[in-house]
Amino acid sequence: MALTTEEPARFVLDPATLDVHGDNERLRAAGALVPVEIEGVRAWAAARYSALEAVLAHPDLSRDVRHWSAEGRRSLCPAGTLAQVVLARTMLNAEGDDHRRLRGPLSPLFSARRIAALRPRVEAVTADFVDRLAELPPGPADLRREFAYPLPCDVISDIMGIPRDRRPVLHEHGHVLATTRGGADELTGARTARDAVIREVVDERRRNPAGDLISELVALEGRELTAGEVFDTVQEVFVAGHATTVNLITNAVRLLLSRPDQLALVRSGARPWSAAVEEALRLEPPLRHFPMRYATRDVEIGGVTVRRGEAVLACFAAAGRDPDRYGERAARFDLAPDAPPHLSFGHGPHFCLGAPLGRLVGEVALAALFEAFPGIALAAAEDELRPVPSVLAVSTTSLPVLLGGRAR
Fold first, then answer.
1. Has residue 109 been placed in a domain?
2. Any signal peptide, and if so, which residues (predicted)?
3. Is residue 282 within 8 Å of 49, Cβ to Cβ?
4. 118-157 tens-digit pLDDT
5. CATH number for the domain harbouring residue 345
């Protein structure tokens, strides 16, 4: 993260940084809201817990890009990572009645009760991937590629009704996007190919409805949703339904293997696996920064005035390690039962719809993995693991492990 010399001083957020948390520490130290530049876009960064909490729920900070200043919109690179989020025409960026209309059909499907009922299915899918791990040849295995990525992909594909013969293509292109490997043309090609498959499945469900989520959304076409909104919603659910959970599982496994004392707590039953999920979400949240909210009028937060039309960036990874919130344990993986809540699933009207599913998949995945492979260990030093080169994500591009023998 570089610091420019212009006035006001701006931190330039680097997607290729090797020191994500060091950068975040410097952001927190700079103030409640800090002027930053991200992919050439100027914004305010909410890096402290109190500032982020205020930003996420503030009624005068909107996700609707129409409230962004014309100057800000001109600075957005259409092929950049930010543009894929900022310009999405989904409930992610909708407000008010539009947000309620787009989110409404999905809310019952992702309720805590409905997701809890999916536990047997999630356990069955997880068991299948554990079996696949056990069949790998001896030597280091990339747990991200072989387990953390395909598991949540299959779970959300089951819920949505994506046919099995279409999944390998989605997995192939999705893995490229999840690790942001390759140049801009390769990433654009992967995104286009992924969306083409999703569009084909939506078209198939128009012709032959089934008892799945895509069919339920297609049934609303022409009444509550337009055809474009159906596709955009399906695409968003697929991406959001697995991309962050990939990082959650990868990060949680790495943290547990790096802290044998904390792993022993969950293995002994002294602490539940859900505690490991929550602590991983706080300390290494799947999202590093997430764009963007725009001031609909002048707003003051933490003594800083955000002018109408200016953009504010949510900094989840920085807020999760804020000592003002978490004290001396802020930068430590600690499964103590008195941990304060985190903001990694958001706060306010845009609280993550998929939080119950992400928590369930993470909990089941960790329990099954560590029960099946009691001798599992990292196969690389921490400083050898490469961060995902993205301003949005917190994870590593791979997670080499030695599985050891499978428990009988």
1. yes
2. none
3. no
4. 999 999 999 999 999 999 999 999 999 999 999 999 999 9
5. 1.10.630.10
